[in-house]
Design brief:
The complex is a heterodimer of chains A (601) and B (465).
Chain A (H helix, E strand, L loop, with lengths): L7 E7 L12 E7 L12 E3 L2 E2 L4 E3 L7 H5 L10 H23 L11 E9 L3 E4 L4 E8 L13 E3 L4 H16 L9 H19 L3 H11 L11 E2 L1 H6 L7 E2 L6 H6 L3 H31 L13 H24 L11 H15 L7 H11 L12 H4 L16 H20 L25 H12 L1 H4 L7 E11 L5 E12 L13 E9 L4 E7 L8 H24 L8 H5 L1 H12 L4
Parallel strand pairs in A: 3-6, 6-8
Antiparallel strand pairs in A: 1-2, 4-5, 7-8, 8-9, 10-11, 12-13, 13-14, 14-15
Helix pairs in contact in A: 2-3, 2-9, 3-4, 4-8, 4-9, 5-9, 8-9, 8-11, 9-10, 10-11
Chain B lengths: L48 E7 L6 E6 L6 E7 L11 H11 L8 E6 L5 H4 L11 E8 L7 H24 L4 H12 L5 H9 L6 E5 L7 E3 L8 E6 L4 H7 L4 H13 L13 E2 L1 H9 L12 H10 L4 H13 L4 E6 L2 E5 L5 H9 L1 H7 L4 E3 L11 H7 L5 E4 L13 H9 L3 E4 L12 E4 L5 E9 L1
Parallel strand pairs in B: 3-4, 4-5, 5-6, 11-12, 12-13, 13-14
Antiparallel strand pairs in B: 1-2, 1-16, 2-3, 7-8, 8-10, 10-11, 15-16
Helix pairs in contact in B: 3-4, 3-7, 3-10
The chains are: A alpha+beta (601), B alpha/beta (465).
Chain lengths: 601, 465
């Protein structure tokens, strides 16, 4: 009689990195979904290939199904065995995928079901990056700074693949690229910054899912998670080993609208987004533990000096975890409500508020309220809203002002959704039985539409072509960029099923002034299961048929992109020394270069 | 830099009382064995103008200003250098001899009231390494605050910059597997950032008349008007480089890590001993595949071919160009930005200041007002796009202004000078002239002097006061 396949697989990791991992508490066990694995590890979504480009050699792969490994719940953390490194990158990337799956309410797959390749020791250097063309994560290793190594030995080898934050950050880049492939095309100053900031948000909030550490930090800071704890810092060993003297980045800032106006290096600008989201989390959390503190202090709200009662710590930790995961879910869920191109931080706020409202019409915890406030005090205002009230920030519901709102063609929707229901049924039976051989469908090239030989795409394409006015699309070519269904349980206990469609268009014009990034427009459609369109979230290309307001917005967008390229040109020292081919594609090439060569993930 | 002596004067914010207004005071008589090159035809600026002479050094800067004074004219030399990548022929020695001739007073002594070195790039200072400056009587030498030998922040920036330049130039580029042409190109490019110590020693310690050295703006006063007796009647403002932390960050060369990685990557390509893990876990490609096949598992490298591995390795090496460009920018960021105002003549010399410095300047209420009255603009950084903000041309530079662009068409740098910038200047009706193509000036006020072979020697402009 066979045994039931376990649902989860325990794997050990450094909670942060080996430097902080010297504390036993900072070596933790991460539960990931159990799937059929080959040595590598190679699962259905990711595969680790430990190829070292510096020496042109491979390192022996870990077999996580080996009884010796299983029996101890995964290899013990160590810097010296590359097989532990492979285990850790696998575990953390799987955790990130799982967080996305929970929030998005669907199984996550890369385009064409192609596995993401992970190279834990690809090169020498204090960096790590996601490479879309290769569909790979590349991690570097490097000797710690000789003069200012921080809490490391000078010259000691530091592995970026042993930093939880770096892994989570790079993995999020890969997933973001899957969900919105045009977000690597810098069409305004927020686009790359969003990519960076969002990746940091995922890394930071995963810290709050490590219960033992959270309890320790709560005890240590008397519940004030705003203090400079490891929880709010990113890539500490990395930052110290590169001579920076501190963590690479932090989730805490001094809210200052001037930063939002003047900061445009993607990581620095992204950190404003991180700080805003963290700020909203923190205020919500504080509100949620206020009653606990009152109970514990006999109503004074003032904690006595010394240690907190362990029960209180546990209760506070539970609130922190639950607020953190609510925040994380809200951040990820927003993706379904984002325009497919040219994102701004303002769009993101609107998408978060809308996404959260759809699931929880009543803002019981105050998270939405705090989020809006956190963006406001940093000077981030969405364009085209009348006020910062929640109602005006939410994307306008399509049917709100016209009772007979158009529907998706029923047969298109039936076809689309039928496919998803079948898939969901198959994959949810038991993920451990996933067919490893599946996959291998070629990913469509940049700019081409995702046909994947799927009749769903052609019928959606036809539908979009027939409804250009409704979707704010012009007469040009339309690409169907994404079709997703999501299944979630709403606040009222009902199953909420939505279909999310993305259509994009390109001016096709690789204008030299824009440095190789064409003008792009696009529309995200969110529809209910019965075919009623809920939201049409668009960034149209300039077109005569748009209404005056939309036309103005489209023109503003063009102007904004031009101004952004001009700003890049003025600030970047690199391109002036380059030849003409580079000039034509400078914005694209700069984005790649920056990713590869600038120190720091 | 092996400097031993302290400069004559420290960087106090108030001028020393006893400072002579004339650079005379030296008793030494210049003894020169050689005959001077012919003097240029008009030596003294006509009354009511400031004469601006731009020398054609190629890809480099050299400007001589003559301000009228009640007793005598005052001379200001701003930079003197030439990039090794210049295509223009006259060697820098020739330009220096011409400068030395042009600054000779009627008593036979070469005198300059004020020497300005905007930043230590070769294409701005290499001329000072040429013989002949020992005899020149100088009133004061002004340099950016980052040159101050007594300022710890300045020292750190300066040392880091020159260390990085040295690493690139001496260690990294020679080790790379490059074509000779590419290597020479990169060496020249990185070489621009070397300490240029001979030239800098002259600027810090040389000249006759024990000139006072000033490092601007001072920590105490920051950017603002410079109190000076050197140029009676002329208001002099120092607009940059800023001492703000955000801007200083731009001056700091890239952090160590990318250099470390770079060094080890080039070293590691020959030495397998750099592998971070024990031999027992290290497999070559065939062994790796065999490891799987031996366990009845499919080949894991079917879509990671030898070619993809080679491509990966290639992609990750040779960031030298970007490193050099970042370094280049960080030194440009130290540029001294000066504005001279005498009546209607408002002359802006921004060195090679780049975005950080400009951004700071354009945000400052004091400068915004002053910049709208600029009558002469020395186009920054040889006309490259990121040394002249578009906003400055669009919103500040008045249409009647004149501009000079010391530049040279270097084949590898097709966007210097930036065509769009020239077009924009034209649209704004700013009259400009290029040092390398005197015929580019559309205004008869620019007067060109040619060498016997037809190459431009210098271009003059008389700016009315």
């Amino acid at each position: 009689m066979a045994y039931l396949t376990p649902v989860r697989r325990p794997l050990k990791i450094y909670a942060y990195d080996p430097m902080l991992g010297r504390l036993p508490l900072h070596r933790i066990t991460l539960d990931v979904l159990n799937e059929k694995l080959q040595p590598g590890p190679r699962g259905s979504r990711v595969e680790v290939i430990d190829y070292d480009g510096v020496v042109d050699r491979f390192y022996e792969p870990v077999n996580l199904d080996d009884p010796a490994v299983l029996m101890q719940g995964g290899l013990e953390p160590t810097e010296f065995d590359p097989r532990f490194h492979q285990q850790m990158v696998y575990a953390v990337t799987m955790k990130v995928i799982e967080n996305f799956e929970i929030a998005l309410g669907r199984r996550f797959q890369f385009r064409g079901r192609k596995r993401l390749k992970i190279f834990p020791h690809a090169f020498r250097g204090a960096n790590a990056f996601y490479e879309p063309r290769r569909h790979a994560l590349l991690f570097g290793y490097f000797p710690a700074d000789a003069e200012r190594p921080g809490a490391n030995v000078p010259g000691q080898i530091v592995y970026s693949c042993l930093s939880h934050d770096i892994i989570a950050h790079e993995m999020t880049h890969a997933i973001t690229h899957r969900l919105r492939r045009h977000f690597f095309n810098p069409s305004n100053e927020d686009v790359l910054a969003f990519h960076e900031g969002f990746a940091d948000i995922i890394a930071i909030f995963q810290h709050f899912s490590f219960p033992a550490i959270l309890r320790e930090e709560i005890q240590h800071s008397q519940g004030d998670l705003h203090k400079n704890t490891s929880l709010v810092k990113l890539a500490e060993q990395f930052g110290q080993a590169t001579g920076k003297g501190t963590a690479l980045r932090s989730a805490i800032d001094n809210p200052d609208p001037a930063r939002f106006r003047n900061e445009f290096e993607p990581h620095d600008r992204g950190s404003i987004l991180v700080a805003a989201v963290f700020d909203a989390f923190f205020h919500t959390y504080q509100e949620r533990i206020r009653d606990l503190i009152r109970i514990a202090t006999g109503g004074t709200g003032r904690l006595a000096q010394g240690d907190l009662h362990p029960d209180l710590v546990s209760r506070i930790a539970r609130e922190a975890t639950s607020t953190a995961s609510a925040t994380l879910r809200m951040c990820i869920r927003a993706f379904d409500y984002l325009p497919p191109v040219d994102i701004t931080f303002g769009d993101y706020l609107r998408a978060m508020v809308t996404a959260d409202f759809e699931l929880n019409p009543v803002d019981e915890t105050g998270l939405r309220r705090h989020m809006i406030e956190a963006f406001r005090i940093r000077g981030i205002y969405p364009s085209g809203v009348l006020s910062l009230s929640e109602e005006s920030l939410r994307w306008q519901r399509f049917g709100d002002y016209s009772p007979d709102s158009p529907r998706l063609l029923t047969d298109v929707l039936a076809e689309v959704n039928g496919g998803f229901v079948r898939e969901a049924a198959e994959t949810s039976r038991n993920s451990a039985q996933d067919d490893l051989a599946a996959g291998g469908v070629a990913e469509p090239d940049e700019g081409e539409e995702e046909t994947a030989g799927d009749s769903r795409y052609s019928s959606l394409h036809r539908w979009a072509s027939e409804n250009r006015d409704l979707l704010h699309l012009n007469e040009g070519k339309i690409a169907v960029d994404g079709v997703h269904a999501s299944f979630r349980v709403a606040q009222d206990g009902q199953l909420l099923m939505e279909t999310v469609l993305q259509f994009t268009q390109s001016s096709g014009n690789r204008d030299e002034r824009l440095g190789g990034v064409p003008l792009r427009g696009g529309t995200t459609v969110v529809a209910k299961a019965n075919g009623v369109i809920q939201y049409v979230i668009s960034k149209p290309l300039p077109d005569g048929r748009l209404n005056p307001e939309q036309r103005q917005a489209a023109q503003d967008r063009v102007a904004r992109q031009e101004a952004y390229v001009a700003l890049l040109d003025e600030t970047d020292p690199y391109h002036i020394w380059q030849d003409e081919t580079f000039q034509k594609e400078r914005v694209l090439r700069r984005a790649t270069l920056a990713a590869i060569h600038r120190g720091g993930m | 830099m092996g400097r031993k002596k302290k400069p004559t004067a420290a960087n106090d914010s108030v001028p020393a009382m006893a400072l002579p207004t004339s650079p005379a005071g030296s008793t030494s008589t210049p003894s020169r064995g050689e005959r001077l090159p012919d003097e240029s035809p008009v030596r003294v600026a006509p009354r009511g103008t400031v004469r601006i002479r731009m020398y054609n050094t190629g890809f480099g800067d050299c400007f001589l200003l003559r301000f009228p004074g009640t007793d005598r004219e005052r001379k200001v030399l701003i930079d003197c250098g030439k990039h090794t990548h210049s295509t223009c022929k006259p060697p820098i020695q020739k330009i220096v001899s011409q400068v030395l001739a042009d600054i000779r007073d009627s008593d036979g002594t070469p005198r300059i009231d004020l020497v300005v070195a905007t930043h230590r790039h070769l294409d701005h200072v290499s001329g000072f390494a040429v013989e002949g400056w020992d005899d020149v009587e100088v009133g004061e030498v002004w340099m950016p605050w980052t040159e101050d030998p007594d300022d710890p922040v300045a020292r750190r920036i300066c040392e880091r910059q020159s260390l990085r330049a040295l690493q690139l130039h001496r260690e990294m580029i020679p080790r790379l597997n490059l074509s000779p042409a590419r290597r020479d190109y990169l060496l020249g490019y990185a070489g621009n950032n070397l300490t240029n110590s001979t030239a800098m020693r002259v600027l810090h310690e040389g000249f006759q008349g024990a000139p006072r050295r000033r490092f601007l703006p001072t920590a105490a006063s920051g950017p603002g008007q410079v109190q000076t007796q050197l140029l009676p009647g002329v208001e002099v403002y120092v607009l940059g480089p800023s001492r703000n932390e955000g801007v200083i960050r731009d001056m700091d060369p890239p952090q160590g890590e990318s250099f470390l990685r770079y060094q080890s990557a080039s070293a590691g390509s020959t030495e397998v001993s750099h592998a971070p893990f024990s031999e027992c876990w290290t497999l070559d490609r065939d062994q790796y595949i065999a490891w799987f096949v031996g366990r009845n598992l499919p080949d894991p490298l079917s879509d990671f071919t030898e070619q993809s591995a080679a491509h990966l390795r290639k992609q990750l090496e040779n960031p030298e160009m970007e490193l050099a460009a970042t370094l280049e920018k960080s030194v440009n960021g130290t540029s001294l930005v000066l504005l001279f105002k005498l009546g209607r003549a408002v002359l802006l010399f921004p060195g090679d200041a780049q975005w950080g410095t400009w951004n700071e300047i354009l945000r400052d209420e004091r400068w915004r007002h002053l910049l709208q009255s600029v009558s002469f603009y020395k186009v920054g950084h040889h006309g490259s796009h990121n040394a002249t903000p578009r906003r400055f041309v669009d919103e500040f530079l008045p249409p009647t202004a004149c501009a000079m662009i010391p530049t040279d068409n270097v084949a590898q740098w097709p966007t210097i000078p930036k065509p769009a910038l020239l077009e924009r200047l034209r649209q704004q009706q700013v009259h400009f002239v290029r040092s390398d193509r005197a015929d580019s000036g559309d205004d008869p006020r620019f007067r060109r002097q040619a060498l016997p072979d037809g190459e431009t020697l210098c271009v003059d402009l008389d700016a009315p006061i």
